[in-house]
Amino acid sequence: MPSTSTAEPFDAIVVGAGQAGPGIATTLVDQGRRVALIEQDKVGGTCLNRGCRPTKALRASARIAHLARTAGQHGVCTGEVTVDFGAAMARKDALIDGWVDGYTESLGHTDGLALIHGQGRFFGSSDRGHEMTVGERRVAAPHVFLNVGTRAAVPPIAGLDTVPWLDNDRVLHLDALPHHLVILGGSYIALEIGQMFRRFGSAVTIIERAERVASREDVEISTEVARFLVAEGIALRTSTAVEHVAATAGGIRVITGDGQHTDGSHLLVAVGRTPNTDTLNLAAVGIDADDRGYIHTDGHLRTAVDGIWALGDINARGAFTHTSYQDYEIVVDNLKGGSRTADGRIPTYAMFTDPPLGRVGMTEAEARASGRRVLKATFPMHDVTRAELDGETDGLISLLVDADTERFLGGATLGITGDEIVQIVTALMHADAPYRVLAEMLPIHPTVAEFFPTILGKLEPLAD
């Protein structure tokens, strides 16, 4: 058993100042506990620094550019539209830096909370609890909460280490607009960033090894996403595996298994995420991560080691800001004697292309595999009055219902306000309410949500 003679005692250690960590730390401080909050980078985690917020700030600039270019469809004359890329990035930086600075100052001036900058690693367990090192400093506490998040996965592609490739972080700090951005990966991050840079003025090519982009979604959704991205001038290459990457005089060359190549000025790699648990020295306290680095927890987010919790992306219960934040709410509720659990949590998320996709519950493929009798209704966004009025008719709404229980199984709302209206279905699923509650509501006109009763009136059994 390691000596505790140099370990500084705390009531709790929180590793990671992302979406879950600070809330737990400040809650415990409010209860009179002394807490160490360890953060190796900037407070706010992936969401604030290199994920949700900076990308949505840039998305807003890209969307305004797109609206200006298409303003003539509404009788509005703008002339030639150009983007000051530096100004768009500066706007993003001002927003993010303000949030990070304010957040850091608030945590740094919280009595009872020690904000420690550095990489936390387990040292072992002792009579003082679990010990961690942060550089030369050692801390100990009976309770440890892990919220260390994920980073961009690095695929084993020949030559990748010889070119200056971008990940989701570095692409947000470019000082000049890429002439031609080549993106490896066809999922949510790749599609969101690809559309943004196309609207800024870059040529964009997306290379995806799966047979379609957004391949986790049902075919009708991914097909529509591909359609409107191609309509904006994005080149999509699917069912294409990358064999080699090389530097060229003008940037990079991507060679694929079909013998073709794509030349670009910049390369973005967006093929998945890797948990940051490999930095924690988990073996020192007896925690086993799976072969991908995720930590198993029970519904209360407790690991197999007493006194250690795993929250956020690293527990494989949802790699989103909102799931991480709800993890914090669940843990705090449990610490106060409550019984909230992550078991049975209804998955919901958005893909922030423009238009956005809102998703909740099962896909059609998952509903079919469940063995239930499933009803489905699909409605094109071009038949939604609000979408026609606003001139934003890309997308569709798809709803799934259990024929026997009349409960929603899932829904996909791709189109104008899709990220917002999907939460109506989410709320009903959480309340275990029958779909007829939504089918019989009095909606406001003209809105997208007013078509839910109409859509639900078209429910039919899934075709074989």
List strands and helices in order, with pairings.
Layout: E1 8-9, E2 12-15, H1 21-30, E3 35-39, H2 45-50, H3 52-69, H4 85-108, E4 113-117, E5 120-126, E6 129-134, E7 137-141, E8 143-146, E9 150-152, E10 180-184, H5 188-200, E11 203-207, H6 219-231, E12 235-237, E13 242-248, E14 251-256, E15 261-264, E16 266-269, E17 273-275, E18 308-310, H7 321-335, E19 348-351, E20 357-361, H8 364-369, E21 374-380, H9 385-390, E22 396-402, E23 408-414, H10 418-430, H11 436-439, H12 452-456, E24 460-461
Parallel strand pairs: 1-7, 2-3, 2-8, 3-4, 8-18, 10-11, 10-16, 11-12
Antiparallel strand pairs: 5-6, 6-7, 9-17, 13-14, 14-15, 19-20, 20-23, 21-22, 21-24, 22-23
Which terms summarize this structure?
464 residues; 3 domains; Enolase-like, domain 1; alpha/beta; 6-stranded antiparallel beta sheet; FAD/NAD(P)-binding domain; 5-stranded parallel beta sheet
| Number of helical segments with 4 or more residues | 12
CATH superfamily of the largest domain: FAD/NAD(P)-binding domain
CATH overall fold name of the largest domain: FAD/NAD(P)-binding domain
| CATH architectural category of the largest domain | 3-Layer(bba) Sandwich
Tell me the structural class: alpha/beta
Please bin the fraction of helical residues: 25-40%
Mean pLDDT: 96
Q: Would you kindly provide a written description of the structure presented here, covering whatever features stand out?
A:
The chain has twelve helices and 24 strands. It has 464 residues and is of the alpha/beta class. It has three domains: 8-151 and 274-335, FAD/NAD(P)-binding domain (3-Layer(bba) Sandwich); 160-271, FAD/NAD(P)-binding domain (3-Layer(bba) Sandwich); 348-458, Enolase-like, domain 1. The mean pLDDT is 96.
